[in-house]
Model the fold of this input.
Amino acid sequence: ILNYDIMARFRRRTCIILLLFILFICSIMMALKTLRPDRAGFGDPFGLGLLPELQQRTVLLDSKQNSLNRAQGDTVTRASNLHSIAVNTMKASMSPVKKLEEELSSPNYNFHIFYYTWYGNPQFDGKYIHWNHPLLPHWDPKIANNYPKGRHNPPEDIGANFYPELGSYSSKDPTVIEAHMKQMRSASTGVIVLSWYPPGMADENGEPTDDLVPVVLDYAHKYNLKVTFHIEPYKDRDDRSMYHNVKYIIDRYGSHPAFYRHKTSTGRLLPMFYVYDSYVTIPEIWANLLTVSGSQSIRNTPYDALFIALLVEERHKHDIHRSGFDGMYTYFATNGFSYGSSHHNWASLKAFCDSNNLMFIPSVGPGYIDTSIRPWNNHNTRNRVNGKYYETAFSAALLVRPEIISITSFNEWHEGTQIEKAVPKRTGQVIYLDYKPHKPNVYLELTLKWSDKYRKEQEQWLM
Done:
């Protein structure tokens, strides 16, 4: 009887150990799948307006009905007011530059980070903007009927799966702008890629933000950061409007010490413009602007610059080359979703760019989740795996030895790509994701780590 009991206990213990081992193996496999979905298919497109060409239609964002002259006049007034508020705030909070330099890592001007100033709240804007993002319906009505509709109700219920440490902030709040600059500088990023619409224009859920540019430039300069522009797909964007808008940006902001200029291999210092959804416009139109013989050519003029196109599909690389662009970036933080965002394609894209005198700027991100605004899109979620997904992306980027790495993003909260500080939060309706077991600044620290690693490896590349 004693032997029988011993054997029975042994068998039970063996079964438990075996079961735990199987569960452990399964969890490892799931984590690896989430970490490197290199061969994943496209799945459905992200959502309305995100990849217009993949849906075989062009989505152009609504502009305000004000005329451009009136919009520019209003912009000057608003900018003057915002600027004076910001200057007063800066004077009150200004600490000695030497102290800042001692506390913060040196900026890496080869690390560019996408930044959004489209958030608003009642205190600064009279209402919530973007935090109250609507739930976007699926384009298939049958699928759409299975998911909730409506919009978010801040401040407890926001259009994001994570919750910012700063709460449902306004991008106009000078203390928020300064906090953002300090976070970006602490991460050793050097160039802010500012989402930009022309005066009087905005995305379909926002308000015009061009009047914030002078304030962003001032605070960026305080932290020795530079600012470049991410030209969004505004209404009627073509060669003529782009020429006028590039001229507007350079004339208005080009003399600011924080305005970014990139030193080319020939020694020229040129502004840089990222062009989102560039593939929506045919190469022939871009060539009018970006080639020397083009009818609206900006080349060899005071407004010449480096223009970086968005690559989504493989065939876009040939269109980008024909269009006269100076390089390409991949933007999406979803490894495996598109050709451009798949890490295993970066080596061939870099080789294509090298052979055609183009810049290749891979975009790395900490993860992706947008089910707070696209509840049907969970198959495109990329789990952060406690920072491992982000580090995998950086590792893949360094393998192709890029001149610049772009980071998606500092604060695109709707798509869960932010590295801005986030905190745990639970409401009656929502349990937000967080960065635990790490601290709210973990992704800033990881960016700093990889910035240092990039610098060291770049020294080896140049030897």
User: Anything to note?
Assistant: Confidence is low (pLDDT under 50) at residues 36-50, 52-72. The chain is about 35% helix and 10% strand. Residues 114-462 form a domain with the TIM Barrel fold (CATH 3.20.20.80). The first helix runs from residue 2 to 35.
